[in-house]
Amino acid sequence: MNLHTARLRWSSALTVALLLAGCAGNGGGSTPSDSNDSGASSAKAQRIAAMNQVTDHHSYSRPEEARITHLDWDASIDFETRTITGTATYDMETADDAERIVFDTHDLTIQSVMIDGEPAEFALGPDQPFIGRPLTVNIQPGAEQVAIRYTSSPSANALLWVEAQGDRAPFLFTQSQAILARTWIPVQDSPGIRFSYDATVRVPQGLMALMSAENPTAVNPDGEYRFKMAQPIPAYLLALAVGEVEFQSVGDRCAVYATPDLIDKAAFEFAEMEQLLLAAEELYGEYAWDRYDLLILPAAFPFGGMENPRLTFATPTIIAGDRSLVSLVAHELAHSWSGNLVTNATWDDFWLNEGFTVYFEQRIMEAVYGRDVSEMLATLSYQGLVDEVDAISDLNPDDTHLKLHLKGRDPDDGMTAIAYDKGYFFLRLLENTVGRERFDEWLGGYFEEYAFKGMDTERFIAYLDETLLADPADKAAVGLESWIYGPGLPANCPQVSSPRIERVDAILEGWEKDAIVSADLPWNDWVYQERYRFLSNLADDTPAERMADLDAAWGISRTGNNEVLFAWMEQSIRSRYTPTYPRIESFLIEVGRRKFLTPLYRAMKETGQMEMALDIYGKARSGYHSVATGTMDDLLDWK
Ligand code: BES
Ligand code: ZN
After folding, report:
1. Percent helix, strand and coil across the chain, each to the nearest 5
2. Pick the catalytic residue: 197, 420, 528, 624?
3. Does the CB atom of residue 384 touch ligand 1 within 6 A?
4. What are the pLDDT digits (tens) for 570-604?
5. Of 370, 344, 383, which is closest to residue 236 (Cα–Cα)?
6. Which member of 272, 307, 332, 361 is catalytic?
7. CA distance 315 to 191
8. Is 491 helix (H, G, I), strand (E, B) or coil?
9. Strand pairing of 311-314 and 305-306?
10. Cβ pair 146, 188 in contact under 8 A
11. 441-456: pLDDT as tens digits
């Protein structure tokens, strides 16, 4: 569909909305139109509008025909049956000749559909792997509202129902990114489609409900909560948590929510949140979401953090007791601009969310904690990237491109260090090429210009060409084609140097040769990044006696820092250092964070310890989220 037919087909209000909002349509097949007679700026607008007809292969919705603009959600949360029963009432915008509106669903039971208060015809299409079933509702021109009554499945992929245990209350949380929102609410589940929302949620008495919205700060005795998210968000940022949760303020705009056993520890650990927020605003512009709070979830949460607007969801494994793991909060906070404000239009453009966010995260860390800390993070990021390129280059070289092709695949496959760290180094290259001052001004301008809009890779390139890389010499120096559409790491990848990390490497070399004994390591002078570097680079065949004297000297197995503990556990598996094994088992049963599970189970697999892996996994699996079991089932060939 080109712009002219679009003009004819659309009501003018919607055309304007589309041009401004740059929605990700599923129309596809458009070509930029060069013929225009109304000046350069309108040529640019047309080109951008045409380019923006991107196809999201992971959604059935057809926003060019009818799209949602606001959600009113009314739901009851039932811990007994592990179901959510609710009504999702959407306001919609429709093309003049629209005949249907299509929603994404996955494992949902649809009870009824109403259009503008009248029962409506609907159909559920065939089920497809990952993406589920389309819910198609027939509409008449001018239809304004559609209400869908539904129930979720007890095995809904987004949801983790954590059972009550002893005096611990039950807990429920959602994880919607990338395409799991559709397992707990029928929705147009494409990151290019945005809507505001209101919600009324009923939960068991004594529990608090929280969403990616304006939130309560205390338990409501009647168990009913009301929410409002005034800014439009894509479906993957819809989030809900229900549990015995307390609130503690840590700043004017920041607070932590956590279960009673963790609330004080969390308030101490994240006391610097407001400082991070101020540093972020100082860098790239005003925070658009009013409050920034943090919810500490049960340890089964499969990620480190999830940038749900106004309320980041986080793993408790970042509570170290010494504030050493706050860079994760900097990362999720940075998403308030890169991702939540300017949003990847499809999951093939995931690097636009994560690469920008890693860059922004490191700039926040530099501003608050200094360049030597951020350069250590950059060095670790570089090591992670080189390892990842190594790991996937042979199997799937295309997966090392920034721009991905995930059609027919689980978008989760794109969640590799490529999007994060290759994306980061690409932006660092841009910074180096034009200088920090120009780069910072440009990035702030980018967030402002595309706020609350979708962004795809091609449109981003066009924007870069017109702005930051308008000078052909700069453009040639960057070579963005090979970064974005080419494999591996281009030769002009920026170098990082961290004297502190280099010193660790030298000390490790000495220790490996026995020239330095464990008791003489400067362990207590090291921050976690240095300790992590040391442990994660130990040789696989490090003898048990040396592991033992390391631990005897520095009490590594008793560290409160889970990153350091994780590196210690992985090394223990690789060098078959059995004194750590009971701790590994209890850790894997308690913690469901995939970033830790995958390397630990993989280390067992690669070292011929499958029996142990399967034994532990058998005990732990029912406590993990579907995102984690999906990966681990494959890794361990679990049936
Ligand atoms: N948005 C991601 C998490 C995510 C990505 C969930 C893709 C589902 C699909 C989040 O911002 C993230 O990147 N989390 C990282 C932490 C970060 C410090 C790199 C994580 O959880 O490990
Ligand atoms: Zn992220």
Report:
1. 45, 20, 35
2. 420
3. no
4. 999 999 999 999 999 999 999 999 999 999 999 99
5. 344
6. 332
7. 24
8. coil
9. antiparallel
10. no
11. 999 999 999 999 999 9
Strands of the 208-211 sheet, one edge to the other: 159-162, 171-174, 240-243, 208-211
d(CA 414, CA 571): 27
Amino acid type, 629: T
| Structure-block tokens of residue 395 | 């199997």
| CB neighbour list of residue 419: distance below 8 Å, 6 or more residues apart | 350, 351, 353, 354, 355, 402, 404
How many angstroms separate the CA atoms of 339 and 345, rounded? 10
d(CA 343, CA 337): 9
For 274-381, list the strands marked E by DSSP: 292-296, 305-306, 311-314, 342-344
Give pLDDT, residue 36: 36
Q: What is the 3-class SS of 159-192, one letter each residue? A: EEEECCECCECCEEEECCCCCCHHHCCCECCCCC
Angle 599-602-608 from CA coordinates, rounded to 5°: 140
The DSSP symbol for 252 reads: S
345 and 191 Cβ atoms separated by less than 8 Å: yes
For 37-88, write each residue's pLDDT tens digit: 344 455 445 544 544 568 999 999 999 999 999 999 999 999 999 999 999 9
502 is catalytic: no
Distance CA 270, CA 241 (A): 20
Contact between 201 and 193 under an 8 Å Cβ cutoff? The reply is no
Query: How far is the centre of ligand 1, averaged over its atoms, from the C-alpha of 342 (Å)?
Result: 16
**Residue 415, ligand 1, Cβ within 6 A:** yes
Instruction: Give me the residues paired with residue 455 across strands.
Output: 344
Contact criterion met (CB below 8 Å) for 114 and 186 = no
DSSP 83: E
Judge if the beta carbon of residue 60 lies within 6 A of ligand 1.
Answer: no
Q: Identify the three-state secondary structure at position 155.
A: coil
Tokens of 194: 């945005």
Evaluate whether 576 touches 544 at the Cβ level (below 8 Å): yes
The size of the chain, in residues, is: 639
Pocket test for ligand 1, best of 174, 177, 303, 358 (most atoms within 8 A of CB): 303
**pTM value > 0.90:** yes
DSSP-derived 3-state class of residue 132 = strand
**Model confidence pLDDT, tens digit, residues 421-446:** 999 999 999 999 999 999 999 999 99
Identify whether the C-beta of residue 577 lies closer than 8 Å to the C-beta of residue 571: yes
φ/ψ of residue 404, rounded to 5: -100, 165
Q: CB–CB of 195/350 below 8 Å?
A: no
Q: Which amino acid is at 298?
A: P
**Cα–Cα distance measured from residue 112 to residue 97, given in angstroms and rounded to the nearest whole number:** 24
**Side-by-side strand order, sheet with 133-138:** 100-105, 133-138, 122-124
CA distance 557 to 466: 53
